Amino acid sequence: MAKTLARKKSTAKPAQAKKLAQPKKTAAAAKGAGKYVYLFGKKTDGNGTMKPLLGGKGANLAEMCRISLPVPPGFTITTEVCTYYYANKRTYPPVLRGQMDAGVASIEQQTGKTFGDLKNPLLVSVRSGARDSMPGMMDTILNLGLNDQTVEALARKTGNPRFAWDCYRRFVQMYGDVVLGVQKRPDEDHEPFETVIEQLKHERHHQAVEDTRLSVDDLKELVKRFKALIKERAGKQFPDNPWDQLMGAVGAVFGSWMNDRAIVYRRKYNIPTEWGTAVNVQAMVYGNTGDQSGSGVAFTRNPANGVKEFYGEFLINAQGEDVVAGVRTPEPVAELKKQMPKAYAELERIRQTLEKHFKDVQDFEFTIEDGVVYMLQTRNGKRTAMAALKFSMDMYKEKLIDWKTAVLRNPADQLEQLLAPVFDASEVAKAKAIATGLPAGPGAASGQIYLNADRAVTAAEKGQKVLLVRIETSPEDLRGMIAAEGILTARGGVSSHAALVARQMGKVCVCGAAAIEVDYQGRTVKVDKQTFKEGDWMSIDGTAGKVYAGQVKTAPSEIVAGLIHDDEAAKKTEKFKHFQQLMKWCSDASRMVVRTNADTPEQTANAVAFGAVGIGLTRTEHMFFEGDRIDAMREMILAETVEERKAALAKLLPYQREDFAGIFRALKGYPATIRFLDPPLHEFLPHTKEQQAELSKKIGVPAARIHQRVEQLHEFNPMLGFRGCRLGIGYPEISEMQARAVFEAAAQVQKEGIKVRPEIMIPLVAFKKELDLQIEVVHAAARAVQAEQKVKLNYMVGTMIEIPRGALTADEIAQSAEFFSFGTNDLTQTGLGMSRDDSGSFLPHYEELEIVKKNPFATIDASGVGQLVDIAVTKGRATRKDIKLGICGEHGGDPASIHFFEKVKLDYVSCSPYRVPVARLAAAQAALLAKAGD
Ligand code: ADP
Ligand code: MG
Ligand code: MG
């Protein structure tokens, strides 16, 4: 859909408008097209459901007005304008300016101030706001409307020249940066405006004083120098006319939708480009008028660990940007109780109102102007997996939400965080904490330290575990944060950029560890009289906020300890109990069940402990690589006659039997889908001369013959070569041995009193006849073993659907197959004609160009490969009503793909053992959403 952006004027708008939520109530809105400005304040046009049109910020500003929270008045320019802007060479709809005029007039009327006025000037903020919040990606401009005249008016009106000039200084700086593009050059270490400030501080105060200590004169001088800097760098005069300022700022917000940082972020979180951003223009309230004013950010509950406490921070005598920028370290919100008790009580009231109304934890921004609280933003708070779990359970108990909502509140793709290791208790006791900071992202991380994003990325690409250490982070560090195991910062509070992003990405993070001295030039970190160089190890505990020297050993999370290691203490923890409750609800809500891909009894047992109800895929070839087996396997491949091959297979049989028996026992009666030999044989043979010579000595086959056989087996396209059922058809004795091993193991375990349900799966079937030939071999082995052992075995034979021809002829294949399992890895390879192992050279570029939205090997290509699945499901069921249908590719553990599999109504998904909880949650959510959609 990115093409909507490139479309011509005439078609772009209507196409987009149809998709966007249109308000139903007002007559003007019913017409839809043409209304680009939505007011909020005394009169409010929008509401909280209109995020696609108004952006998240705009919709919630409107919603807060509707529930009478104190919001400074303003208006929202819709995302449609953003779409229009890019479709029309960066121009606006002609009617926009008139609607903005009316918007400004409405703000003027509500505030009693006038834009550009020389007595009581109205200042506004210009704020971006996409549908989903994009922290740090878009830039806000505050105090717009100031110039050399209005600043004097503001000073006179408020009797506070310091305040007026502080606003002006900030405005020129932000405008210069965001709109006029005066930013750090690669050869500079600091933002140019910050350099000017530092210089002036040193000239006039001989030290680095806080911004709040700058005098009116200092501020006036700064404005002068800033304007000169802008002139020099941007070659432009700073605009004096408020309307020019406003239109420039609006353009900059729309322009920033396509900046590199925004693009990187959207790619990471799969936010479509065509959504666009809205722009909010809002009357300023001032947190920088003195010590009865301030700005803050708060959560209605703790977003790191989920505890129900008022959580947040504020800065006295500051504007909002200061809090998130991590320039000054803010104070915890609880401090306000002492410093401004009335404002604190008001915030407590707001906190309750927000949760009651939105029924979810809110992350909100506020400003206090001379003791009066104003709300500037609210949104559902980003949270760690741990907090999400606790929020959902607590809010259920508080009757704010029902159990289904509680299930939906846990993000499936984050759930794995709960299974991530923590520091080993005994190791931590021995380790020395060298610094403490704020626990901003729970979990344990050990890594080699790097002080900038690029070097962190490079090290991670080399396979190192990386800890990114920064004084504070900014959006430029995003790539490094993604690459790192954990993030450590010296400055910044719980709502600093580092903390926000870490929470969202599930990264371990300690921020504001003031004791560490980060030296970017020297690439060292000094702390506790020690110096760490880049590449040295450090460890951080993001749950406790502690920093350790060196590498600290980790231990399993309470959930893993309780489920897998049967640790009684772990089972008593709240985290464990909540997790179990969630999993129980998942079972209640799901239609599909979850199986696992496992090749060993241990993996199987783990998966069952996590709630898997069977194996969806056992790759028998994995068993051939262990110990001596590989030699017997190689003998089998090198055999020249059927007899020789049978002799070698006879050596493999007992190994396979034991493996299967172990798996059946671990399954405790659940079914196991066992796939017959699949990969091309050359994968088992040694490829270097030395290895061939060694093997020759070991098994007594001449090296020349080994070499010759390797050559013989060489294929140009092994992925499409002699593999899958083609092997079993070429060498039926291999399938015969495997079938016999399965049935002998089944007989053995069944005699032990354990139910056994083998499901034999023939891979890579494209023709019904292939399957028929293999089924015959399987049935013959089954008959033989049942007769020998005098048992009756309950088994099935089916196939993997992983070739388009197999999917398209599924009706025929289902005549023989009792089940299908979709091998979506191969189905993606063959369906797209794209080798998974070779796609690295072009696929990332494809993702950048949005030719593919997501890596099709990670998330199923629903409209292409998914269609093959859909066809096979329909045709398979048409032939055999009760055919069992599952998926065992990599996609079985991917939440987005699981939603697709729910839509086509598979019976189960199968994934690796540690993904089982994720898949259970995703399957439950998919079922709940499917029901809600009915
Ligand atoms: P972001 O999306 O990066 O959070 P915002 O648009 O929320 O950007 O602006 C950042 C901060 O600027 C807000 O938290 C708030 O403190 C301050 N701010 C924005 N608009 C106003 C306003 N009208 N009056 C006072 N402060 C404002
Ligand atoms: Mg904000
Ligand atoms: Mg396959």
Question: Which helices and strands appear, and what pairs or packs with what?
Answer:
Elements: H1 3-6, H2 9-19, H3 27-30, E1 37-40, H4 51-66, E2 74-77, H5 79-87, H6 96-111, E3 114-115, E4 121-122, E5 124-130, E6 141-144, H7 150-158, H8 161-178, H9 192-205, H10 216-234, H11 242-256, H12 260-268, E7 277-283, E8 294-299, E9 311-316, H13 320-325, E10 331-332, H14 336-339, H15 341-358, E11 362-369, E12 372-380, H16 385-397, H17 403-408, E13 422-423, H18 425-430, E14 433-436, E15 438-441, E16 444-450, H19 453-461, E17 466-470, H20 478-483, E18 486-489, H21 497-505, E19 508-511, E20 517-519, E21 524-527, E22 530-533, E23 537-541, E24 546-549, E25 554-555, H22 558-563, H23 568-571, H24 574-589, E26 593-597, H25 601-609, E27 615-619, H26 629-638, H27 642-667, E28 671-675, H28 689-699, H29 703-713, H30 725-730, H31 732-751, E29 757-762, H32 768-789, E30 796-801, H33 804-808, H34 810-813, E31 819-822, H35 824-832, H36 843-848, H37 865-879, E32 884-887, H38 895-903, E33 908-911, H39 916-933
Parallel strand pairs: 3-4, 16-17, 17-18, 18-19, 26-27, 26-33, 27-28, 28-29, 29-30, 30-31, 31-32, 32-33
Antiparallel strand pairs: 1-2, 2-7, 5-6, 5-7, 8-9, 8-11, 9-10, 11-12, 13-25, 14-24, 15-19, 16-23, 20-21, 21-22, 23-24
Helix pairs in contact: 2-5, 7-8, 8-10, 9-10, 16-24, 24-39, 25-27, 26-27, 27-31, 31-32, 38-39
The chain binds adenosine-5'-diphosphate and magnesium ion (2 copies).
